[in-house]
Amino acid sequence: MSATTTTAMPILRVEHLSMKFGGLVAIGDLSFDVRRGEITALIGPNGAGKTTVFNCITGFYKPTEGMIRFTGRAGNEFLLERMPDFQITARAKVARTFQNIRLFSGMTVLENLLVAQHNKLMKASGYTILGLFGVGGYPQAAAEATEKARHWLEKADLIDRADDPAGDLPYGAQRRLEIARAMCTDPELLCLDEPAAGLNPKESLALNALLNDIKDNTGTSILLIEHDMSVVMEISDHIVVLEYGRKISDGTPEEVRTDPSVIAAYLGVDDEEVEEVLIEVGDEDVIEQLDTGPDAEHGPEASASMLAGPLSDTVVHGNGERVTVEKGAGKAQRVKAEKPAAAKPAAKAAGRAEAVATAGAARPGRKSAAAGAEPSRTPAKGAPAKGGAAAGKEQGISNRMPAPRGGKADDLQLIKGIGPVNEKKLNAHGIYHFDQIAAWKKADIAAAEAYLAFDGRIAREDWIGQAKALARKAASGPANRRGGRK
């Protein structure tokens, strides 16, 4: 294989990767490339499966399905899913750091970097105690290891702390030390799990400088997981976005930043609500994409794995209830699957009306405000109508109420999984009190999930059990009577 061909090939190719833990699917049919000499970011909401992907790449997990193909500089190819974890580091030259710092805190900063070169030093000593006596090539190997450690201490701006215990370093310096230690293994691919977590802006800038230096001057490719978007957007050449273990976007930072699927996944709202937010901020380019739909190439492939068949995963709960999670469970997936079926609400202010008219003039199913039409929101087929108890009746929730008892609703946000948006939706659906949720039957749960666009979440988070406990607590004392707030 020629050098030109090797350079053009991705250093890492993940193909139809799936990882299941019993009935729980952490990764489903994931495919993406890491290009050589670039910084690729793997991002997504909490619980999207990012660290699970890292664990599959570095051998901590063996994937249920799929291939992880690594191509070295010399053209040698490795299938990482078939290799033990220590060989992935030693032979394929893949190094990683973890979310939690894992330094040897009692050792000095320099010693931490020498430990990373342990295999080379042991080989030079003949895997005996001869190194203690300076026999053979050990002195030269030790000098080279020390020089390499000094080089990376300088790159990480830690040379003046070389003899200090690693545990005495500030948090940001410890993060850089971990990266320097990984680089002492001469990796071709460096996998960093949230390297900017907990860093202040100054420390984040130092981290950015170190990662760009690694990319520009060593030829090492970088794959990182990160929640700090200021870091991701500044240094990444390529971004892959996950939601519920499935890819929803893949492209340059600018493409990902304006992808409606990504916005929906991070905000956790429906596509219509995303559009309302974007109208408020005046981002008309993205508004237009919401109607035309994102790139069809983004997201999961048609096949669930290398075997034919759709991806449909069933989780069995302790009470015997079976919940099936389809591909459409994610908010981002619905941005791809659904097309707006009706006109949007009228603008509340002149600026918003102008944005609606400008962004929506050419969209099907939408009346132009400039033409004097009255836009109105019409529920899509199968979607719940808004409007309190009436909406609840349509969806079949049996115990909705026209108003809260005594004019005061319970604080439904005390139930884990209910935030301010969903509390507002439940109130609009005639649900105000813990004992209402505690009394839900399966039909009520199905109706609520259809309205909230959930898929099995109420059972997974045990809203019923939480509501029963909160209802009992509210009834047990005057300080927590139903209708009051904590």
Protein described:
By secondary structure, this protein is α/β, with parallel strands linked by helices. Among the domains are: 96 residues, no CATH class; 92 residues, no CATH class. It is 39% helix and 14% strand. It contains 21 helices and 12 strands. The longest helix has 18 residues. The N terminus and C terminus are likely disordered. This is Branched-chain amino acid ABC transporter ATP-binding protein. Belongs to the ABC transporter superfamily. One of its GO terms (molecular function) is L-valine transmembrane transporter activity.
Topology at a glance:
Layout: H1 3-8, E1 12-21, E2 24-34, E3 39-43, H2 50-57, E4 65-71, E5 77-79, H3 85-90, E6 94-96, H4 109-115, H5 118-124, H6 138-155, H7 171-183, E7 189-193, H8 201-218, E8 221-225, H9 229-235, E9 238-243, E10 246-251, H10 253-257, H11 260-267, H12 271-281, H13 284-292, E11 313-316, E12 322-325, H14 331-337, H15 350-360, H16 389-395, H17 420-428, H18 434-438, H19 442-452, H20 457-460, H21 463-476
Parallel strand pairs: 3-8, 3-9, 6-7, 7-8
Antiparallel strand pairs: 1-2, 1-4, 4-5, 9-10, 11-12
Helix pairs in contact: 4-6, 4-7, 6-7, 7-8, 11-14, 12-13, 13-15
Strand order of the largest sheet: 6-7-8-3-9-10
Low-confidence stretches: 1-7, 289-319, 321-328, 339-394, 479-486
How far apart are the termini? 68 Å
Mean pLDDT: 76
Characterize the main sheet.
6 strands, mixed
- Proportion of helical residues: 25-40%
Q: Helical element count?
A: 21
* Rg from alpha-carbon coordinates: 27 Å
The secondary-structure class comes to alpha/beta
Name the overall outline. elongated
Classify the beta-strand content into a percent band: 5-15%
Q: What is the count of β-strands?
A: 12
GO molecular function, one term: ATP hydrolysis activity
Biased composition (Basic and acidic residues): 324-341
Protein name: Branched-chain amino acid ABC transporter ATP-binding protein
Family: Belongs to the ABC transporter superfamily.
